[in-house]
Amino acid sequence: MEKIFDDTFVSKVVRRKIRKNIVQASFDLDWLSFDVKVNFAFNRLNEIPYTKVRILISFWEKFENIQSFLQSSNCKNWKLLREHKFGKKKPGQLEIYFENCIDEKFILSMIKKHYGYELGKPESLSLELVFVFQNMDDITICHLYDDRGFNFFYANP
Asked: String of b and e for 107-122 (b: at least 16 CB within 10 Å)?
């Protein structure tokens, strides 16, 4: 099975349970303005070479809000893994899969909605984003955890 689809592997890397053959880089965006923060994260993601990309989105919203965003962005290549139950701590989760190219406008919009949530920006969503890029045998995982920053993990499992 490809590591890009191995949720256990991805989760262990993001939660730092696996460290062997992993290089980590952290970006602290705490002191940047909203627009600079969004553009910096987007530009770092754009620099990663890939043939396949899987985006795991954890959300603490009504699914209708997420679905509305996906439809307005004309995103069709998503799959709901689990809905968020109101009042519960466990997030809903969905995945989006791209091969060879991604919709840059959609990614930029999603990053804005993610970073805008804790900053109280209108039309933001409570999201946590994990991008899993595969390029031959290399895996790069980017975890946008909140408005303070993000981590990159480079793996050659």
From this structure: bbbbbbbbbbbeeeee
Q: Are 9 and 3 spatial neighbours (Cβ–Cβ below 8 Å)?
A: yes
| Cβ-contact 4, 139 below 8 angstroms | yes
pLDDT in tens, 80-113: 999 999 888 899 999 999 988 888 999 999 999 9
Tokens of 84: 């968020």
The predicted model gives 11-39 an average pLDDT of 91
**Stronger pLDDT, 40 or 146, i.e. the higher one:** 40
Mapped onto helix, strand or coil, the DSSP state of residue 141 is strand
The per-residue DSSP string of 17-66 comes to ---TTEEEEEEE-TTS-HHHHHHHHHHHHHTS--SEEEEEEEE-S-HHHH
| Element (DSSP H or E) covering residue 142 | strand 138-146
Residue 114 in tokens: 């993610």
Confidence of residue 157 (pLDDT cuts 50, 70, 90): low
Considering only CA atoms, give the Rg of the chain. 15
